[in-house]
Design a protein that fits this description.
alpha/beta, 434 Repressor (Amino-terminal Domain), Rossmann fold, 3 domains, six-stranded parallel sheet, six-stranded mixed sheet, 12 strands
């Protein structure tokens, strides 16, 4: 081949194997036969390739000192504080290590932007900031051999996952509300194709199971994506005597609060609300909103350190962070109605 920048794709094509196989052979990790490992290593040696720095065997390309962080095209503007905090943690860690961070936009299932920077060898690794049930970006990165980690949980046990413990946090907040006497709790949220939705819902259900309280599934509303639908749900909930409404995140909490203001629904007096996620967008709300407060800056920093270790060929493990706090506030306080 006669070039010193030998890529995983080059080796895979020449040997007639997958890029994943080449990546595993070079890193020495994963289920792969000794014969295949020897074949890959022999090819690399025959073509006089020396990995970056002469010692790093984990990657078959020269370091760019760039990483990509994915940004989902369906993020709403109100989700920006979360991404900003995560990105701040990532950039702080990467900057200290001499790395630059580029943003790669993913719109629905279209990953052309991500594929371009990977296939052209512009980056050394990727941090995915969202996990899906049908996770096309994750599958592509696995097949490419590119080191990557996910912020969030995944059903794929071969994917390195860095996440806040949303299951336990949501279970804890729901349990606290049940303990306060809120037995009929409604839930409203977004896409059930998002792993985070499944995880938060799982924690919510577990709290009812632990408390021995029957969960009324008729007041559970997922895959809700319009203000008109939210308004209709609020009108319905006011007629069926619910104790509290939990919003899956601050996005839904804000939309619920705005609709309540427009329709003269008094929070606490007419409808108690809570959120499974807190952000600066909820600060200053009156009454203050019961919510879960996560350290997203730390989440980004841990993901960055994990990716760096993986790029260097080190052993990495999933991390479930418990840096959260349950904030019980006025929005779920019981108020006598007159």
């Amino acid at each position: 081949m006669g070039k010193d920048k030998l890529t995983i794709s080059d080796i895979a094509e020449a040997l007639g194997v997958s890029k994943t196989t080449v990546s595993r052979a070079l890193s020495g990790k994963g289920r792969i036969s000794k014969a295949t490992i020897d074949k890959v290593n022999d090819y690399v040696q025959q073509h006089h390739y020396q990995p970056y720095g002469g010692t790093d065997k984990a990657l078959a390309f020269r370091k760019t000192h760039n990483i990509a962080v994915t940004w989902s095209g369906d993020y709403e503007l109100v989700e920006m504080p979360y991404f900003q905090n995560v990105l701040t943690g990532i950039v702080e860690v990467m900057s200290d290590e001499g790395y630059d961070v580029m943003i790669s936009l993913i719109v629905n299932d279209h990953i052309e932007n991500l594929k371009r920077v990977v296939d052209k060898g512009k980056i050394d690794g990727v941090i995915l900031t969202r996990t899906l049930v049908n996770d096309i970006p994750s599958r592509y990165l696995k097949n490419s051999g590119m080191p990557f980690v996910c912020i969030g949980s995944s059903d794929d046990k071969d994917v390195i996952q860095i996440d806040n413990d949303h299951f336990e946090a949501c279970r804890e907040l729901t349990s606290a509300l049940i303990h306060q006497g809120h037995k009929r709790i409604a839930l409203i949220g977004g896409s059930s194709n998002h792993i985070i939705t499944k995880t938060r819902y799982g924690g919510f259900v577990k709290a009812f199971h632990d408390a021995g309280v029957t969960l009324d599934t008729s007041i559970i509303f997922l895959d809700i994506n319009t203000d008109k639908r939210i308004s209709d749900i609020l009108s319905y909930l006011l007629t069926v005597d619910v104790d509290c409404l939990i919003c899956m995140d601050d996005t839904y909490a804000l939309r619920v609060i705005d609709i309540c203001k427009n329709e003269h629904i008094r929070i606490s007096e007419d409808l108690r609300i809570a959120s499974f996620y807190n952000s600066t967008l909820l600060s200053g709300m009156e009454p203050a909103v019961t919510s879960l407060d996560f350290n997203d800056r730390n989440l980004g920093a841990v993901a960055a350190r994990t990716l760096l270790q993986k790029i260097k060929g080190g052993d990495v493990q999933n991390r479930m962070l418990k840096t959260y706090e349950v904030m019980l506030r006025e929005s779920t306080r019981r108020v006598d109605k007159f």
